[in-house]
Amino acid sequence: MLKLFRNLKPFTGLIAVVVTFVFIQSMGDLYLPTLMSDIIDTGVIKGDTDYILKIGAFMLLVAAGGAVCAVFASYFSSKAAMGFGRNLRNKVFSRVESFSLQEFDTVGTASLITRTTNDITQVQQVLMMLMRMVISAPIMFVGGVIMAVTKDAKLSLIIVAIAPILVLTIFLIMFKALPLFKAMQIKIDKLNLILRESLTGVRVVRAFNRDPYEQTRFEKANYDLMDVSIKVNKIMAFMMPMMMLILNLTTVGVLWFGGIRIDTGHMQIGDLMAFMQYVAQIMFALIMASMMFIMVPRASASAARINAVLDMNPSISDAAVTTTAEANRGYLEFDSVTFSYPGAEMPALSNISFRAAPGQVTAVIGGTGSGKSTMVNLIPRFYDIDAGTIRVNGIDVRKMKQKELRSYIGLVPQKAVLFSGTISENIRYGKENATDEEVWHAAKVAQAADFIEGMKEGYDSQITQGGTNLSGGQKQRLSIARALVRKPDLYILDDSFSALDFKTDAKLRAALKKETQEATVLIVAQRVSTVRAADQIIVLDEGKIEGIGTHEQLLETCSVYREIVQSQLSEEEIA
Predict the structure, then answer these.
(1) Among candidate residues 334, 394, 326, 323, the one with its CA nearest the CA of residue 364
(2) Greatest CA separation for the chain
(3) 133: which DSSP letter?
(4) Which residues pair with 354 in a beta bridge?
(5) Which of 96, 330, 396, 436 is deepest in the core (most CB within 10 A)?
(6) Which domains are assigned to the chain?
(7) From the CB of residue 21, how many other CB atoms can be counted at a distance below 10 Å?
(8) Residue 455 has pLDDT above 80, yes or no
(9) Is residue 354 exposed (0-12), middle (13-18) or buried (19+ Cβ within 10 Å)?
(10) What is the pTM of this model?
(11) Which pLDDT tens digit goes with each residue over 495-549?
(12) Element holding 391 (H helix, E strand)
């Protein structure tokens, strides 16, 4: 957790103000019992009303000053803690944005959400308490001990006797609670995972009537979290009664032995009252520290999880020396590329070699699990290859800056992903400064203009989260428009025609051919009708290239392609 607190450097000024106010408040609290003992021993015993009023007014002034300091300390500590939380969330989010898909697969999306929200909130709350309590508690403890010893050194031995018992109690409770706090965060991860799956897959859940099953899954995760929370809270609930028991026994001891010392004339009544106040301040300082110990274990578990994200080095990073592509714009080349997913027994792709040039449409076809989408994910360098070379615009993708590499590519993923906002904003996601004319043109080429203009607000129509108010075909056409508005050197269309009818498919391909004459187009598809007009077709099977050529050439030379064609087209269509 101390590692995270290095991020407090921008807030050193606020922290200094908080420390100042807390110190002034603590000094006032320590001085009040002495004033009270003076009133009792001097004013009350001697019957000096003027002295009582004078010291009483001064006590009220000190108390009022302490209250004002407490308010300002709370305000500035809250401001520093909230600012720290804001900066830390930005830092974690920026770090997560730099991760490759491999890191997302390792940590998990649900866990990353928990770490960015719940875990940072835990650390933020502890920081706020630290600035208030941990600064105040030592001052009150040390100051209380000094003042108590000043009043009566022998009676202060009670504090020496009781302090080890208090510390041992706190230590034992923390020893039991810390593992449970770590387990609690893992349970929250699991709960978030199940909730996220159920919400994103609600259509599938309802289509198969699996609501009771999902309810059971959620209840199990929920009860697991509840059980751990109950266990840890039972342990923590034991702390406060123990603290109060020790405090009250200490008070009884002070009254008992203090009464004896008053009887023998070694102590004044006012001094005993002040001594009791100092003992109470000492004990409450320790109780405040113990309250911090309640929060620190959970926050330390959260801090460890946050640090794990911040310390995680992305498996894909820019080379120390990068190259900028100036010639060969639009060229794509795979040279003996082999790739395996982490932990996989067999390579997903083996010895893949081909070349695609501008003005050329290259199609990739193959059965399920043949490696089509894997090949697509390697081009923008979502994963790094095991062997071989991938060149975009004539440059090895590992020698280019990732930002520059992806600026050359217009990717339409297999699953059309849209963001909440207007249709225009979603198309401009491909090019932030695109003009209205560019947006309209991209929509027209993508065959999306008709349905957009048919909507009540046209291009300003709102899209719900995930595009749930659009059909699958509409989402695919908007995803294609988003890539088109960018005017990249290389278009990658990963099975992005699957939700379109044959008529729209044909019109879209014809429009794309005119629009992309100076760019390279790579189409991944499962339908023969989508790829048959391509300049070259790559046939994948079990991660290997079984054939490259035109539709007619592959019908004669590639048995895998011939089987795919025969399964989809009639003999008349093949002829």
Answers:
(1) 334
(2) 122
(3) I
(4) 334
(5) 330
(6) 4-311 (1.20.1560.10)
(7) 23
(8) yes
(9) middle
(10) 0.69
(11) 887 778 878 888 888 888 888 888 899 998 888 888 888 889 999 988 899 999 9
(12) strand 387-392
